[in-house]
Amino acid sequence: MSMEKEVIKCPVNYTLSILGGKWKWAILWQISRQEVIRYGVLKDSLRSIAHKTLSQQLKELENSGLVHRKQYNQIPPKVEYSLTEKGKTLMPILESMAQWGSINMTK
């Protein structure tokens, strides 16, 4: 068996392939706190993220089935994001990460 196939079979590597990178966990956290969030509010809550990066990460999260995108055909355009049921299954992990961060970031 090739090393590449072994990597894909590893659950941790699979999870990191979906959620790896600097921004995806932060995006999921912000969406979870609002339940439904508009693009502009999400962008404002992640101040140092570039528009292109946020758009790309949201598309990847949507393609992975973790985020739902709802577009309203109006002027000005309105787009809202929410977690899918699959995305909501990550909340215990995010809550644990937040708890760990709260305990350890002041040390």
TrEMBL record:
GO terms for molecular function: DNA binding. The keyword DNA-binding applies. InterPro entries: HTH_HxlR, WH-like_DNA-bd_sf, WH_DNA-bd_sf. SUPFAM superfamilies: Winged helix' DNA-binding domain (SSF46785). Residues 10-107 form the HTH hxlR-type domain. Gene3D superfamilies: Winged helix-like DNA-binding domain superfamily/Winged helix DNA-binding domain (1.10.10.10). Keywords: DNA-binding, Transcription, Transcription regulation. PANTHER family: TRANSCRIPTIONAL REGULATOR, TRANSCRIPTIONAL REGULATOR, MARR FAMILY. This is HTH-type transcriptional activator HxlR. It comes from Pelotomaculum propionicicum. The gene is hxlR.
